[in-house]
Write a structure and sequence with these properties.
By secondary structure, this protein is α/β, with parallel strands linked by helices. It has five domains: about 10-45 and about 305-385, no CATH class; about 60-300, no CATH class; about 440-540, Beta-Lactamase; about 545-605; about 615-770, Histidine kinase-like ATPase, C-terminal domain (Heat Shock Protein 90, 2-Layer Sandwich), CATH 3.30.565.10. The chain contains 23 helices and 27 strands. A hairpin with a 7-residue loop joins β26 (about 750-755) and β27. The longest helix is centred in the middle third of the chain and has 35 residues, at about 360-390. The two termini are about 75 Å apart.
Length: about 775
C-alpha cells in the first residue's frame, strides 16, 4: 500500500483537495449560501396527505359577505354563530378575528359575544402583535378584557417568512421577555377537552429569554402543509348561521372560523400555494393544528449537525475517487448524489427532520470534475515527460529498460495505468511512431500488412484510393480484398507479392478507374524474421492520361494538320510545271478548301484548349436562351444554303444558369453544325431549350441516318469521329464533340446522344439552373 502514505504525492494532493472541499461544504452549509436551492428542494420533497375528517374551517367567504353584508360584521353575528356551533356539538372553536377594540355599533354586541363564548364551546382568540421597523416599539394588543376573560385561550398568529417571502415555518411560543403565548393553533389544541396533553417540540432559542422589551421566539418548527389552498374541509359561515349545514357535519369536530374571501383577512404564499394562489391564514392555522395533533411537525437540524452531515457524502466520494477505478468512482459519486437527496427527503417524510442537502450536492458535483482535472493534469504531465524523453533518447528500436518492481506499484488506478503505459511504450512507441509517421507522411497510398496479409496500418492516401473514409477503416481487412478481388491477377495476390518482394507491378484497379504502380517491400524485426510487407501504390492515372493525350496530340499534328499542309506544298510544286499547272479558278478553289480545312483544325484545337483552361470561378449568371439564340443566328446561313429548316422551341420563362455564354453558344453551334452536315436537303433540324427537374436542357435533333450504338461510347472523346450510319466521312479532326463534353463538364453538366436508327440522332445538353 505504497500509495497510502502521506509522502506519496497523490495522497498529498488528494488530502489537500479533500480539505478544501470539506471546508467549502462546511462554509456553504453554516452560512446557508445555497438557501434558494435548499428551499426549492424542501418544497419539492414536502410530504402531503389527506385532510383530517375532524377539523373543519367555517369560512367567511365571498358568498357569506354577499349574504351578511360588508365586513366587519357586528359581534352579535359571531355570538349567533357560536350558539349555533354549540347546538351542533362542536368540540372547540378557534375564532380567528381580532377583537382589540370594542364593538363600534353597541356595547351589547361585546357582551353577547362574551356570553356566547362562556356558554361554550371552548373558544380561542388571537392577539395582535405589531412588529414595526427597527428602532420602533413593539406593541402587543390583546382582545378587549370582556372577551379575553371569556376566551378559553389566546394565541399569537405570527408566521415566519423565509427570504423568498414564502411562509414555511412557525414559532410555537412567542412573547415579550419570555415566550408566553402559544400559537393560535396550539392554544386551540390545548383548549380542546378531547385532545391529549400538548407537547411542544422544535428548535429551541433560549439565548434571548428574559431580555426586556425583546420579542422572544421559541420552538421553531417547519409546517408540513398537507395540500394546496382549499385542501381542508370548509363550510360557509352564512350556511352554518342559517342552518344549511347538517349537524353531523360539525358534531365532535374542531372548528376554525376565519376569513377566506378576497381582500378580507390575511393570506400567505406557501410551498403548496401554486399558480400564485395565497393560502388564507385560517387554513395555515389548520395545517399547524393537524401537525401538532399528529406530532408530524418538521424540525430543522441544528446548523452544526447539518454541516457535519453535509460533509459525510463528500468524504465518502473522495475516498472512492482515491481507491477505485474512474468508472466505479464515478458510479459511487452518482449514487452518493442521488442518495443524499433521497436521504434528505426520506428523513423529512419519516422522522420529521429537515437536512438541507444543497451543500453536499454542490460539493459532489464539483469534487469529481476537480479530482478528474487533477488526474488529467498528472496524466498530461506524464505524457509530456515521456514525449520529452522520446525526443532526447538515442536508443535502438525495441529497446527495453528495467521496470519497477511489483512491490512499488501504486494502489491508485490511474497511477497503475501510467506505470503499465510506461513499460509498454518503452517497447512499442518508437516503432509505432516511426511506421505511423512515415506511412501517413507518404504522398503515395501505403499499407502495412502482417505476415498473414491483414492490413495493420494504412495512410490517408490509401483510404482515398480505395474509397474508404479513413485509413483506420482499412485495418484488419485483407490485402487481397482490395487488390486481387479488383484485378483478378495472380501477380497481385498477397502471397505472390510477399514472395517476390521487393517487386513492382503495374495494374488498373477495376471499378475505381485508376492505374497504379504497386511496389512491395518486406520488413523484418530485430531478429531478421519477416514481420510483414509494405505495399505502396503510386497513382499513375493522370500520368497515363497525359501520355495518351500527348500521343493523340502528336498523332493529330503529324497526320490531320500535316495532311492539308502537304497538299498545299504539292499544289505549289505542281503549279511550277506549266504542263501540269491548274487553271487559276480550280487552283484557288483547292487552296481555299485546304486552307479552310487547316484553319478549322487549328480553330477546333485552340477552342478545345481554351475550354479546358476555363476557370469556373469566373462564370457569370445569364439567360441560356441568349446563348441558344446566338447559336441559331450563327448557323442560320448554313441551314439556308443546305435548304434545311431550323425549327426552334425555346422556353418562354428565363433559363438562368452560371457559366460562359460564348463557350455554351460554341458548344450548341457544334451540335447544330453536325446536325446540318448529316441532314438531307429539305429536312428539318429541331432545337429545343427548356427546364426539366432543376436542370436546363438543350436538345438538337436531326433527321439523318442516326448513329450506330457501338459508336456512341467514344463519340465525345477527342480525335474520335463517329460517323452516322451509312454516311461518308464529312471531314474534321474529331474535336467538336470533345469540345462539347469539356464545356459541359466545366459547367457541372453532361452531354449525351440518343435516338433510333430510323429517325436520326438527338444530342442532349443538361446543366444546373439557378432558381
Amino acid at each position: 500500500m505504497n500509495l497510502l502514505r502521506w509522502g506519496h504525492p497523490v495522497v498529498r494532493q488528494w488530502a489537500w483537495t479533500m480539505i478544501a472541499m470539506l471546508a467549502a461544504t462546511w462554509l456553504a452549509s453554516r452560512a446557508d449560501l445555497l438557501w434558494r436551492t435548499d428551499l426549492s428542494f424542501y418544497d419539492a420533497a414536502l410530504p402531503g396527505g389527506p385532510p383530517p375528517g375532524d377539523v373543519v374551517i367555517v369560512a367567511v367567504d365571498d358568498a357569506s359577505i354577499a349574504e351578511l353584508g360588508r365586513w366587519p360584521w357586528r359581534r352579535a353575528v359571531h355570538a349567533a354563530l357560536l350558539d349555533r356551533l354549540r347546538a351542533m356539538g362542536v368540540r372547540a372553536v378557534g375564532l380567528d378575528f381580532l377583537f382589540t377594540e370594542p364593538d363600534s355599533a353597541t356595547a351589547l354586541g361585546d357582551v353577547a359575544l362574551a356570553e356566547a363564548m362562556t356558554r361554550g364551546p371552548p373558544t380561542v382568540l388571537p392577539l395582535l402583535v405589531d412588529l414595526p421597523a427597527s428602532g420602533a416599539a413593539i406593541h402587543e394588543r390583546l382582545p378587549i378584557p370582556i372577551l379575553a376573560h371569556a376566551a378559553a385561550g389566546i394565541g399569537h398568529a405570527q408566521l415566519e417568512l423565509d427570504r423568498d417571502g414564502i411562509a414555511r415555518s412557525v414559532f410555537l411560543r412567542e412573547g415579550f421577555g419570555a415566550p408566553t403565548w402559544l400559537h393560535f393553533a396550539a392554544a386551540l389544541l390545548r383548549a380542546d377537552p378531547g385532545s391529549r396533553p400538548l407537547q411542544l417540540r422544535g428548535e429551541r432559542h433560549p439565548d434571548l429569554a428574559g431580555a426586556p422589551r425583546v420579542w422572544v421566539r421559541d420552538y421553531h418548527v417547519l409546517i408540513p402543509f398537507l395540500g394546496p389552498p382549499g385542501h381542508f374541509i370548509q363550510v360557509s359561515y352564512a350556511d352554518v348561521l342559517r342552518g344549511a349545514v347538517s349537524e353531523s357535519a360539525l358534531r365532535g369536530k374542531l372548528v376554525l372560523v376565519g376569513a377566506t374571501a378576497q381582500g378580507v383577512g390575511d393570506a400567505y404564499p406557501t410551498p403548496r400555494s401554486g399558480e400564485n394562489r395565497a393560502m388564507a391564514g385560517i387554513e395555515v392555522s389548520a395545517n399547524i393544528l393537524q401537525s401538532l395533533r399528529s406530532d408530524s411537525t418538521i424540525r430543522p437540524l441544528t446548523p452544526w449537525l447539518a454541516a457535519l452531515l453535509a460533509m459525510v457524502p463528500v468524504l465518502l466520494a473522495g475516498s472512492a475517487l482515491l481507491l477505485l477505478p474512474p468508472r466505479r468512482s464515478w458510479l459511487v459519486a452518482v449514487l452518493l448524489w442521488f442518495g443524499t437527496a433521497a436521504a434528505s427527503a426520506l428523513a423529512m417524510r419519516t422522522a420529521g427532520w429537515w437536512f438541507p442537502p444543497s451543500a453536499s450536492l454542490a460539493a459532489l458535483l464539483l469534487l469529481y470534475p476537480l479530482w478528474s482535472w487533477r488526474r488529467l493534469e498528472a496524466t498530461q504531465s506524464f505524457l509530456e515527460e515521456e514525449f520529452d524523453r522520446l525526443a532526447r533518447e538515442r536508443l535502438p528500436l525495441l529497446s527495453t529498460s528495467a521496470s519497477p518492481s511489483a512491490a512499488l506499484r501504486p494502489v491508485d488506478y490511474v497511477e497503475q495505468r501510467m506505470v503499465l503505459l510506461r513499460e509498454a511504450t518503452q517497447h512499442l512507441r518508437q516503432v509505432r511512431r516511426l511506421f505511423s509517421d512515415m506511412i501517413n507522411g507518404l504522398p503515395d497510398a501505403t499499407i502495412l500488412a502482417d505476415a498473414a496479409g491483414r492490413i495493420v496500418l494504412a495512410n490517408p492516401a490509401a483510404a482515398a484510393l480505395f474509397g474508404i473514409e479513413t485509413g483506420a477503416a482499412l485495418e484488419e481487412s485483407s490485402v487481397d480484398s482490395h487488390l486481387y478481388e479488383r484485378v483478378k491477377r495472380d501477380a497481385l495476390r498477397f502471397d505472390a507479392l510477399a514472395a517476390n518482394a521487393p517487386c513492382t507491378v503495374e495494374a488498373a484497379l477495376d471499378g475505381l478507374g485508376r492505374h497504379v504502380l504497386i511496389r512491395a517491400v518486406p520488413f523484418c524485426d530485430s531478429a531478421q524474421i519477416r514481420a510483414g510487407t509494405i505495399i505502396a501504390l503510386a497513382d499513375i492515372t493522370e500520368l497515363r492520361a497525359a501520355q495518351r493525350e500527348r500521343d493523340d496530340v502528336l498523332r493529330f499534328l503529324s497526320h490531320d494538320m500535316k495532311s492539308p499542309a502537304s497538299s498545299l506544298l504539292g499544289l505549289a510544286q505542281l503549279q511550277r510545271d506549266p504542263r501540269r499547272a491548274l487553271p487559276p479558278l480550280e487552283l484557288s478553289q483547292r487552296i481555299d478548301l485546304l486552307a479552310h480545312r487547316l484553319l478549322t483544325l487549328v480553330d477546333g484545337f485552340v477552342a478545345l484548349a481554351r475550354a479546358e483552361s476555363t476557370d469556373p470561378r469566373a462564370f457569370e449568371e445569364f439567360d441560356l436562351r441568349d446563348a441558344v439564340q446566338d447559336a441559331c443566328d450563327e448557323v442560320w446561313a448554313t441551314a439556308q444554303a443546305r435548304s434545311i429548316r431550323l425549327v426552334t422551341a425555346i422556353a418562354e420563362d428565363p433559363v438562368v444558369v452560371s457559366g460562359d455564354r460564348q463557350l455554351l453558344a460554341r458548344a450548341i453551334v457544334n451540335l447544330l453544325g453536325n446536325a446540318l452536315k448529316f441532314s438531307p436537303a429539305g429536312s428539318a433540324v429541331n432545337l429545343r431549350c427548356s427546364q426539366r427537374g432543376g436542370e436546363a436542357t438543350v436538345e438538337v435533333a436531326d433527321q439523318g441516318p442516326g448513329i450506330a450504338l457501338d459508336s456512341r461510347g467514344s463519340l465525345f472523346r477527342r480525335f474520335s469521329r463517329g460517323l452516322h450510319r451509312g454516311a461518308t466521312d464529312p471531314g474534321g479532326a474529331g474535336l467538336g464533340l470533345a469540345f462539347v463534353r469539356v464545356v459541359m463538364e466545366k459547367h457541372r453538366g453532361r452531354a449525351w446522344v440518343d435516338g433510333d436508327l430510323e429517325h436520326g440522332a438527338v444530342f442532349y445538353l443538361a446543366m444546373p439552373i439557378i432558381a
